[in-house]
């Protein structure tokens, strides 16, 4: 969701550096943006805000400065307008602020501030915070005013504040992530480490309730409750700058789809040490609960089938937003396996907090090293998919599934078997990506692009595959797609199938084949246009996409087909696959 980027250093083009930083955060999703900078000579703050995408916008009209920050806003309180965009100014124009999160008790504080004469121009909760700081600054030093204001704010928030008289950012967080980047004669601040890679790999992720005073050559961290100095250690990001760039691909999504075979091979070769440790924790525990949101939730569902099928192990599963209603089962012996690409999804963090209150053990599978979920977990596994910038998750999903396959096989001490099927899955995925299959998928996208609805069926492991396929198609092509357990067709959805309705059927070489084919036949009998994704052709298919068998790991090449279909549908329909409307990459609010 909202993005934050800040720079303080020697260079004179701070606003430009910030704008570039914000562009690298575009994938998080936003509807307006803004930059504020301070000119050192006269201590004046200049602000530029706009509605819409940054695109080719330039910032040349702002005077030279070496101290600036900016924000991409995803509207929550108040419409998408320039006034509501951040940074916000106080009445004097000397304090400016950007904010991520939701200031829950802003209304009462706003009334009080208006009574005291503050002029609040926007409809946002965020602007109230800058006036609150201004008010407190009348009696307290600036840093203390920020601290006191933050402590009065209810909810999960991250604030970055500048006082034009002082050469430092004051940043404080609870909930929303903030990462400090350490450069040479410069320091940076970002809501997401990807944006820092071009400048530095040395970072520190602010912990819950920590407050930082960031100067050009000095960073000090305090506990925002006790004011005590925190001795912190920086860490090195293990991603390269190039990994986070598009390279020769027209979109991040396509690049990330093509990276999958190599990522899966890497997990097959090096994933088992952590898989074996995870398996041991699951064995030692009593009851395992998988939790994830969006695409990660379908990886969890796939995990529940994999654990059952391979390891004969029952695991529970809930989406992050529902987890809180089913955690009465948790005890100190429970193991919660939390899956998240970003490690910042609010519903996951909340689930984990609640599970920790019950003293359950937290095992996480996350892609972003140092993210909030990573830091909150007792045992952390890294997905190893490299930076994922397209809003729609692709390689993180297949990465999660690959690790779950290894864990399931490790539970029965057969990790070599898991490794072998992953190698096959990587090979079969590559086959789809480099040969005629891509052309077949492009052709299919052309054929079905004008349809309003489409249906996807599967059984067993192909059920989460169907749900994820439908999600990918909805997310980026905006065609209504429904994923179903094939057995449910007769209980309602069949009423919607008519002549020409596209029906994608996953028919891998497993125990589901016959029953799923029956589902495909039911749809065919009602005029459905049957798209078979299978290891062998069948006469009922109107369109056939071959996918080689890789045992339980066939879910991986099957999903590669779905990702490509969703991508080419978006291209045919002239949608931007990397930045789907109304969606954000990191959902950091509830
Ligand atoms: C958002 C993204 C999805 C992602 C979900 C969970 O909705 O658009 O692609 O699957 O969040 O994100 P996480 O980072 O927790 O995996």
Would you spell out the secondary-structure blueprint of this structure?
Blueprint lengths: L2 E6 L5 H11 L7 E8 L4 E8 L15 E7 L14 E2 L5 E7 L4 H10 L9 H12 L5 H11 L4 E7 L5 E6 L4 E4 L4 E4 L11 E4 L4 E5 L4 E5 L11 E2 L15 H7 L1 H11 L1 H13 L3 E5 L2 H17 L4 E4 H4 L11 E6 L5 H12 L3 E6 L5 H5 L2 E4 L12 H17 L3 H20 L1 H13 L4 E6 L3 H16 L2 E6 L16 E6 L5 H13 L3 E6 L8 E4 L8 H18 L18
Parallel strand pairs: 15-16, 15-17, 17-18, 18-19, 20-21, 20-22, 22-23, 23-24
Antiparallel strand pairs: 1-4, 1-10, 2-3, 2-4, 5-6, 6-7, 7-8, 8-12, 9-10, 9-11, 11-14, 12-13
The structure holds 6-O-phosphono-alpha-D-glucopyranose.
6-O-phosphono-alpha-D-glucopyranose binds next to helix 8.
Quick description:
With 590 residues, the chain is an alpha/beta fold. It is built from 17 helices and 24 strands.
Protein described:
- The protein has 590 residues and is of the alpha/beta class.
- It has 3 domains: 3-237, 4-Layer Sandwich (Glutamine Phosphoribosylpyrophosphate, subunit 1, domain 1), CATH 3.60.20.10; 248-431, 3-Layer(aba) Sandwich (Rossmann fold); 434-577, Rossmann fold, CATH 3.40.50.
- Helices cover 36% and strands 22% of the residues.
- The chain is built from 17 helices and 24 strands.
- The strands form 4 sheets. It has an 8-stranded antiparallel sheet, covered by helices on one side. Strands 5-6-7-8-12-13 form a 6-stranded antiparallel sheet, covered by helices on one side.
- A hairpin with a 4-residue loop joins strand 9 (179-182) and strand 10.
- Helix 8 runs antiparallel to helix 15 and helix 12 (395-411) runs antiparallel to helix 13.
- It is globular, with a radius of gyration of 25 Å.
- The model has no long low-confidence stretch (mean pLDDT 94).
- The structure holds 6-O-phosphono-alpha-D-glucopyranose.
């Amino acid at each position: 969701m909202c993005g934050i980027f800040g720079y303080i250093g020697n260079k004179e083009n701070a606003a430009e550096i910030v704008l570039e930083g914000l562009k690298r955060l575009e994938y998080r999703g936003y509807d307006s943006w803004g930059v504020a900078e301070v000119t050192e000579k006269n201590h004046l703050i200049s602000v530029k805000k706009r509605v819409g995408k940054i695109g080719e916008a330039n910032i040349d009209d702002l005077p030279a400065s070496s101290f600036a920050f900016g924000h991409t806003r995803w509207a929550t309180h108040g419409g998408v307008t320039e006034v509501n965009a951040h940074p916000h100014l106080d009445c004097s124009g000397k304090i400016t602020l950007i904010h991520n999160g939701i200031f829950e008790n802003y209304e009462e504080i706003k009334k009080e501030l208006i009574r005291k004469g503050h002029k609040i121009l926007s409809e946002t909760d965020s602007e109230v915070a800058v006036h609150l700081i201004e008010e407190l600054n009348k009696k307290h030093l600036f840093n203390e005013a920020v601290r006191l204001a933050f402590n009065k704010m209810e909810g999960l928030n991250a604030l970055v504040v500048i006082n034009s008289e002082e050469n430092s950012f004051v940043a404080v967080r609870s909930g929303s992530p903030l990462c400090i980047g350490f450069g040479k004669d410069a320091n940076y601040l970002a809501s997401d480490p990807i944006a820092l890679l071009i400048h530095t790999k040395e970072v520190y992720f602010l912990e819950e309730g920590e407050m930082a005073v960031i100067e050009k050559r000095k960073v000090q961290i305090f506990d925002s409750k006790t004011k005590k100095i925190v001795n912190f250690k920086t860490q090195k990001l293990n991603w390269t700058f190039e990994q986070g760039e598009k390279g020769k691909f027209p979109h991040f999504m396509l690049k990330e789809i093509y990276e999958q075979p190599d990522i899966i091979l890497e997990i097959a070769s090096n994933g088992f040490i952590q898989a074996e440790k995870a398996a041991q924790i699951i064995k030692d525990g009593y009851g395992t609960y998988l939790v994830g949101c969006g695409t990660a939730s379908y990886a969890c569902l796939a995990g529940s089938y994999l654990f059952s099928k391979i390891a004969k192990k029952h695991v529970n599963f809930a989406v992050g937003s529902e987890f809180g209603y089913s955690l009465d089962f948790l005890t100190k012996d429970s193991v919660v396996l939390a899956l998240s690409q970003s490690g910042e999804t609010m519903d996951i963090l909340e689930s984990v907090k609640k599970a920790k209150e019950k003293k359950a053990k937290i095992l996480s599978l996350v892609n972003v090293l140092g993210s909030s979920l990573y830091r909150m977990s007792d045992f952390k596994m890294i997905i190893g998919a490299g930076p994922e910038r397209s809003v729609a998750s692709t390689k993180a999903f297949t990465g999660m599934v690959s690790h779950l396959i290894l864990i399931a096989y490790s539970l029965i001490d057969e990790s070599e078997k898991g490794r072998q099927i992953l190698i096959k899955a990587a090979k079969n995925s590559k086959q789809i990506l480099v040969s005629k299959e891509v052309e077949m998928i492009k052709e299919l996208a052309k054929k079905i692009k004008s349809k309003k609805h489409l249906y996807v069926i599967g059984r067993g492991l192909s059920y989460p595959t169907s749900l994820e396929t439908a999600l990918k198609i909805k997310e980026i092509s905006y065609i209504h797609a429904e994923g179903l357990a094939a057995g449910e067709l007769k209980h309602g959805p069949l009423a919607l199938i008519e002549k020409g309705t596209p029906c994608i059927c996953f028919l891998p070489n497993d125990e589901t084949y016959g029953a799923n084919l029956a589902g495909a036949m039911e749809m065919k009998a009602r005029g459905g246009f049957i798209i078979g994704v299978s290891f062998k052709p069948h006469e009922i298919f109107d369109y056939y996409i071959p996918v080689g068998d890789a045992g339980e790991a066939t879910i991986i090449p099957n999903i590669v087909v779905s990702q490509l279909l969703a991508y080419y549908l978006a291209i045919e329909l002239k949608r931007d696959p990397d930045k789907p409307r109304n969606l954000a990459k990191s959902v950091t609010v509830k």
